[in-house]
Specification:
522 residues, Aldehyde Dehydrogenase, Chain A, domain 1, Aldehyde Dehydrogenase, Chain A, domain 2, 2 domains
């Protein structure tokens, strides 16, 4: 029997026994490779560094060194940008069908290597098996979807109307040049592949910096592009510390644009500082503080299931995760009963093991942020479940904290701060009016969900909520699970910069600028 054809973040079908067998084999292979010393790559060549290596450890067991990675310096940033600038000229002149052919081969390679990639992400990030496989599958689908956008637009070349009989007018979208691509830890393959492949499909070159916590996955993506036949210099891999190379990369004068996923604080600093001599494209996805609304007409079992899954998959370390829920007073008690029951049933532990749903947070900094939020919640409200570190049974070796649910007054700042830890704030509202007002009160506007049996409630929520990705009655994840070509992932307000998100039909065009061409008959 074959393994499932595709696993997404919210659905799967097929033989999971075969899936786990293949995953176990890949996991053993990754563990056998652990501990190596790796370079980064500029212009297709491996580069060593005199800097202190970046040590990559598993958050589930920090005694495990996954690898040591050469750390780049600002001088390496200069070299990478220079190589990208030179290579991009030939890439832009290449026929767009040839460019797309190379990128589609990269998608094929990801699918061929998906078990290895998923096993690595489980160790490096702390993703559950299904979550990690979803990351790998999405990466390939993103590349194919962005290639399809170029194909559907015929290379973004369009004949235009004539004003006089002797003229021939054409509209062309052309690449900017060199994009800096800075990725987060939580979806180290999907977000990296999505951002970079869109830039490449548009004809740009990329200088790519993976998160400090996920250098090995970043290296694997480099190898995919290399093995697919991407010419040297078009995708340069810089591994290093953010304080050493982060600012020098996005501030580099020969960088023509940036695509970044990360915190609002960093993103706003990039946006305000990027453009000097002229305005440069700045594509930012900046996190969220996502609300689910539960009304009296809701299927409470579905609502509890959806909120639990969306709040505690990947330990709430998703910019789309449900981190606050507003419940109509009449159903607060039965909803909480179901939510607590489902959360208590979560299997916690090493997420590389089969059937484990809940793993570690990424770092000790995250543990500290969790503990600060819990201390505030105990002062302002009631911690209903969790609230501490997980101890014993292997938990002591990693960054494990308990899935936590707190009942809080609506004026608590815990309803507003993006924490990126498994902490869910629950508040009571009188009606849909108040639920929408509370949902919209925060500075973020990424995802939002509603549970209601009344179509009029859903329609009004969609019309009035200030969020780019909206769900109704989604049992498999109240505010999570967007997929390429199905749910465009666009942040409003403090959650994004362009109004057109990844996974959506307008993404690739943002990596290009328009040129009008008029030829007069001789």
């Amino acid at each position: 029997m074959s393994a499932p054809a595709k696993i997404t973040y919210t659905s799967t079908s097929g033989n999971l026994e075969e899936f786990h067998h293949l995953f176990d084999d890949a996991l053993a292979g990754i563990r056998a490779q652990a501990g190596g010393l790796h370079p980064f790559y500029i212009g297709g060549e491996p580069v060593e560094s005199r800097n202190e290596p970046l040590v990559d450890r598993s958050p589930a067991d920090t005694s495990i060194v996954l690898g040591r990675f050469a750390a780049a310096s600002p001088a390496h940033v200069d070299a990478a940008v220079d190589n990208a600038h030179i290579a991009q000229r030939g890439w832009a002149r290449m026929q767009w069908r040839d460019r797309i052919g190379i990128l589609r081969r990269a998608a094929v390679l990801i699918r061929e290597r998906k078990y290895e990639l998923a096993a690595l992400m489980s160790l490096e990030v702390g993703k559950s098996r299904l979550e990690a496989m979803g990351d790998a599958e999405e990466s390939a689908d993103l590349i194919d979807y962005y290639c399809q956008q170029v194909e559907d637009a015929d290379g973004f070349v369009r004949p235009m109307a004539r004003i006089t009989p002797v003229e021939h007018n054409t509209d062309v979208l052309r690449p900017y040049g060199v994009f800096a691509c800075i990725a987060p830890f939580n979806f180290p393959l999907a977000l990296s592949a999505g951002m970079s492949s869109a830039a490449l499909a548009a004809g740009n070159a990329v200088v790519y910096k993976p998160a400090e916590d996920t250098p090995w996955t970043g290296l694997k993506l480099y190898e995919v592009y290399r093995d697919a036949g991407l010419p040297p210099g078009l995708f340069n891999l810089l591994i290093g510390r953010r304080e050493e190379i982060g600012d020098p990369l996005w501030q580099h004068p020969r960088v023509d644009g940036i695509v970044f996923t990360g915190s609002k604080q960093v993103g706003m600093r990039i946006h305000s500082g990027l453009s000097g001599r002229w305005i440069k494209p700045c594509l930012l996805e900046l996190g969220g503080k996502n609300a689910a609304v539960v009304l009296t007409s809701a299927d409470l079992d579905a609502a509890a299931e959806g909120v639990m899954r969306s709040a505690f998959s990947l330990q709430n370390q998703k910019c789309s995760a449900t981190s606050r829920v507003y419940v109509q007073g009449k159903v607060m008690a039965p909803f909480l009963e179901r939510l607590l029951e489902k959360t208590r049933a979560i299997k916690m532990g090493d997420p590389s093991e089969r059937d484990v749903f809940f793993g570690p947070v990424i770092s000790q900094r995250s543990v500290q942020r969790f503990e600060e939020a819990v201390a505030q919640a105990r002062t302002e409200g009631t911690v209903l479940l969790g609230g501490g570190r997980l101890r014993g049974d292997g938990f002591d070796r990693g960054h494990f904290v308990a899935p936590t649910i707190a009942s809080l007054p609506l004026n608590s700042s815990l309803f507003e701060q993006e924490l990126f830890v498994p902490f869910l704030a629950v508040g009571q509202v009188a009606d849909l009016d108040q639920a929408i007002a509370e949902t919209n009160r925060v500075e973020y506007g990424l995802t939002a969900g509603i549970f209601s049996g009344k179509p009029a409630d859903v329609s009004r929520f969609f019309d009035e909520v200030e969020a780019g990705v909206c769900y109704a009655n989604k049992r498999t994840g109240a505010t999570t699970g967007a997929w390429p070509g199905a749910q465009p992932f666009c942040g409003w307000k403090g959650s994004g910069s362009t109004g057109k998100g990844g996974c959506g039909p307008y993404y690739v065009a943002q990596f290009m600028r328009e040129q009008s061409r008029t030829i007069i008959d001789g």
